[in-house]
Amino acid sequence: MLRLGTRTSALAMVQARGVAARLREAANVPVEVVGISTAGDRHQGHLGELGGKGAFMTEIDRALLNGRVDIAVHCLKDVPGDVPRPDELVFAAYAERDDAADVLLFPAAGEIRRMADLAPGARVGTSAVRRRAQLGRIRPDLRIEYLRGNVDSRLERLDSGEDLDAVVIARAGLTRLGIDRPGEALDILPAVGSGVLAIDCRRADSDVVDLVRLLDHRETRLCVSAERAMLRDLRGHCNSPIAGHARIERDGRLSLRGAVFTPDGSRFVHAQEWSPPEKGADLGARVAGDLLRKGAGDLIESIPH
């Protein structure tokens, strides 16, 4: 029996059950999903007060290290780039990436279905500094409201019509939860690791590592290698509006776009480079170096932790 650890939110449990089903199918092994309450889920304030998105991982890492669970599933976009992972743990598999797009959703009872139809000063909910910055570039007149919570609670607040005219939610989360409602895909650069589930396990458990690797998606791993290398070299913190997305182009090359913004989006730097697919880490380093030469370091340092 493999014990698979995950956060206790509805989305995290759905994701974990999906991974468990794939493991059962690939290796005919029984898998038990174990919900683990994390500080990030319990805390209702700003994540920066807990040190950032790492607050979603500490308890799960501890459960892996002490043997309470054998594997764990994380949304890769929630894995910090400025905090080293425990040496004893390894991401043995990256599941095939789902749609990385961010979607703007509107109250179900209303008639608005496009950003262009929002009135000046309309209130848009999101907790992501990356989204806030890019929305600021597209529609600087919008009022961006800090919004956390699970997908259901965010949609309930939106549909109440009390204080929000739209919210931004990852399309991958909506799809995994089976939520189908009208919205507008935003033309903004996603977070590093968007749409990717990372499967974590103890490095020393070679049999478990080999089993989990059955779920590894090569193209996703190549893309993640580039994105995470860029994020690491930029040394951004939890309040840094950093975006990055890699993909395999039609000509077979790996491309990586990266950008760093000020919180309001008034200033930004952007870079894009290409490489052979197996050179993702080098590509990420090159894009980070280009961004830093253009002033990304100054933008990041200007933002309080």
UniProtKB/TrEMBL annotation:
It catalyses: 4 porphobilinogen + H2O = hydroxymethylbilane + 4 NH4(+). Signal peptide: none annotated. InterPro entries: HemC, Porphobilin_deaminase_cofac_BS, Porphobilin_deaminase_N, Porphobilinogen_deaminase_C, Porphobilinogen_deaminase_C_sf. The modification S-(dipyrrolylmethanemethyl)cysteine is found at C238. It is an enzyme of class 2 (transferase). Residues 222-292 form the Porphobilinogen deaminase C-terminal domain. Residues 2-208 form the Porphobilinogen deaminase N-terminal domain. Keywords: Porphyrin biosynthesis, Transferase. Binds 1 dipyrromethane group covalently. The keyword Cytoplasm does not apply. The keyword Transferase applies. Its EC number is 2.5.1.61. One of its GO terms (molecular function) is hydroxymethylbilane synthase activity. Its cofactor is dipyrromethane. SUPFAM superfamilies: Periplasmic binding protein-like II, Porphobilinogen deaminase (hydroxymethylbilane synthase), C-terminal domain. The porphobilinogen subunits are added to the dipyrromethane group. Monomer. Belongs to the HMBS family. Tetrapolymerization of the monopyrrole PBG into the hydroxymethylbilane pre-uroporphyrinogen in several discrete steps. NCBIfam families: hemC. This is Porphobilinogen deaminase. It comes from Actinomadura nitritigenes. The lineage of its organism: Bacteria, Bacillati, Actinomycetota, Actinomycetes, Streptosporangiales.
